[in-house]
Amino acid sequence: MEASDVIRLPDPREDVRASVREVVRDLDGRPTVLWRLTLTGWHFVDRDSRPFMLVGDAVSDFVRITPDGVAHGYFARDLPEADRVSFGYGRVVAWDFDLRIGTDLPRLDRARLPKGVVDGFRDTAAREVPREGRAPREDGDGLRGPA
Questions:
Q1: Which residue, 25, 43, 52, 146, could crosslink 69 as a Cys pair with Cβ 3.0–4.6 Å?
Q2: Is the pTM of the predicted complex or chain greater than 0.85?
């Protein structure tokens, strides 16, 4: 076989898309403000190891994977500007996606949030985000918690 005989298939990572929203999630019985990074266009699966996302130096606090393979990463800190989003399990990056994450993301209107919402972006000492071994409480959105 010659190099000219090799067929190069399109890179399926180019189909991956990202969207970022600030959301309120119920964590340990307390409504909490987090960033949610959603990755679509790839089929993510649950594995024995805990899934994670990495944006710059920000590691997700937890990731939920829907039955149809969409990954939702939740971050308790502001996301840095980045040109890459990594996804992995345990401590190993499985895939790097060339996705631009900016810092001009729309924020929730704090004046419209009900009392009692934990807003760690205002008071970082007030937030305690679930870590490995402590899955967030299911809130009926059809998502499964970390393995």
A1: 43
A2: no
Whether residue 25 has pLDDT greater than 90? yes
Q: Tokens 């190993």 label which residue?
A: 92
Closest to 105 measured CA to CA, from 33, 42, 32: 33
User: Could you read off the pLDDT of 76-102 as tens digits, one per residue?
Assistant: 999 999 999 999 999 999 999 999 999
Distances, alpha carbon 141 to alpha carbons 19, 64, 107, 137, in Å: 17, 10, 21, 11
Rounded Cα distance between 90 and 119, Å, is 28
**58-59, strands of its sheet edge to edge:** 58-59, 51-55, 85-89, 92-97
